[in-house]
């Protein structure tokens, strides 16, 4: 279950449009990873195809935003730092990832209340992933 609580008792997952909303967000995120110059370092730690990464982010965000726990059902506990430890993640990678996420969020989610709830937690999560 998501730790994100909204004033109207709907989950962020519901407020952004369920699976379709999360899919729009993750699809835009990975397009931006290929387009934004500031995402170059982040893109470099990913494989040439981003298809699998996009699917896993969709599954993770689905549960994290209060929807179906797809990632846990398919892959087990997230253990994000452990899963990403094979990649050297420094500040340039974190900042690139955040640039993509923030822009994708602002383009696909039109809910200022959710901005204030979700974006600080995403920023903290991204910085938690830094391992170098």
Please characterize this protein's 3D structure:
With 132 residues, this protein is mainly alpha-helical. It has one domain: Orthogonal Bundle (Globin-like). Helix content is 66%, strand content 0%. It has helices spanning 12-15, 18-35, 40-44, 51-64, 70-75, 80-84, 91-108, 112-128. The mean pLDDT is 91.
Low-pLDDT regions: none
CATH architecture: Orthogonal Bundle
Number of helices: 8
The overall pLDDT average reads: 91
The name of the CATH superfamily reads Globins
Briefly, what is this?
The chain is mainly α. Helix content is 66%, strand content 0%.
Break the fold down into its secondary structure elements and pairings.
Elements: H1 12-15, H2 18-35, H3 40-44, H4 51-64, H5 70-75, H6 80-84, H7 91-108, H8 112-128
Helix pairs in contact: 2-4, 2-7, 7-8
Keywords:
Globin-like; mainly alpha; single chain; globular
């Amino acid at each position: 279950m998501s730790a994100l609580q909204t004033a109207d008792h709907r989950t962020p997952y519901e407020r952004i449009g369920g699976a379709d909303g999360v899919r729009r967000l993750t699809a835009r995120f990975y397009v931006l990873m290929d387009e934004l110059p500031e995402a170059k370092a982040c893109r470099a730690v990913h494989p040439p195809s981003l298809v699998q990464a996009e699917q896993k982010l969709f599954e993770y965000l689905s549960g994290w935003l209060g929807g179906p726990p797809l990632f846990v059902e398919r892959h087990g506990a997230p253990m994000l730092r452990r899963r990403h430890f094979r990649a050297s993640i420094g500040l340039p990678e974190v900042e690139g990832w955040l640039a993509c996420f923030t822009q994708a969020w602002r383009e696909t989610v039109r809910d200022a209340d959710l901005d204030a709830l979700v974006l600080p937690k995403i920023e903290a999560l991204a910085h938690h992933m830094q391992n170098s």
